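Hello again, I could really use a second opinion on something today. I've been staring at a protein lately and its backbone has me curious. Please have a think about how the structure follows from the sequence. I owe you a coffee for this, so here goes:
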Amino acid sequence: MTRMEELKRTAARRRLDDIMVFGEANIRALTGIDCDSACLTAEAVYTDFRYAAMIRRTVPDFKVRDIRRLKLKGRKIGYESSMPHGRFLRLQKSMPQAEFVDIEDDIRTLRMVKTPEEQEAIRAAERLNVEIWNEAKGIFRAGMTEREMARAVKRLMIERGDGEAFETIVCVGANAAECHHRPDDTVWNGREPVLVDMGVKLGGVCSDLTRNIVPKSVRGLYRKVYALVEAANRAAIAAVRPGMTAAKLDKVARDIIEKGGFGKCFGHSLGHGVGYEIHESPTVSRRGKTVLEPGMVFTVEPGIYLEGNLGVRIEDLVLVTEDGCEVLS
């Protein structure tokens, strides 16, 4: 059964008269249609002149209609709560008879387990991501700024892939204590650690990886923190099993960091799903109720951040298998 068929069954079970899906990644995951200006309903794809011919060619089984005529007659309509509020208000105005029912979680659940084709696409993207990281390390030089290092990574992603899945993060020294630091004019002197969080897009899917350059002269505290984060990363990867909850997996890594005395310095979740978007379900956190299944792809990225001092994060991408996981990075 296709995802679209499963969504229709969910809609019927919830007694919805129709659905409206606008999200580009959601439409692609449900149908294979790659279009940034469309609405998917139970029976058709609404788009404009620019994309109609492409959709008819690539997905001939779908009816294609003019998006200017989008107006459903049903009384209960499923929609994505993540859509812009302005668009939602326009929908309400154009269909005053409708009760809108949020189906965002239903779609996210359908997207969590990747198809074999999606798994292979993500595998290829992450493989390229690692290759670009190894090449970028050879380009980085003392005297370069964070911005220059980030641009070097971006150029490689444009040349060898489909560009960045998100803006590359480069952190020199104490800047790594900011989880999502924006690269600035901080100069790398060649003696400080560098944290790089990067993801190339390839074939419509994303990849994700965080690595650290650790010079021989780093302080003892940094080495202690790095060893602790590495241990948490490896233990969590080794613990991945279908049937366990996301919260239980998060706890494996968190317990190691807490026992090491840095529990309060690990303030984010252990990981997040990756696919057509860089952040997808499942969320691997302390409150994560998702039960892991074969085919799920997510990051394992414990970190320790000491504000104004240092930061370490080690991130790998894993695919849940029948008896554990495959490390894609």
In short: Residues 3-111 form a domain with the Creatine Amidinohydrolase; Chain A, domain 1 fold (CATH 3.40.350.10). The longest strand covers residues 194-198. The two ends are 30 Å apart (CA to CA).
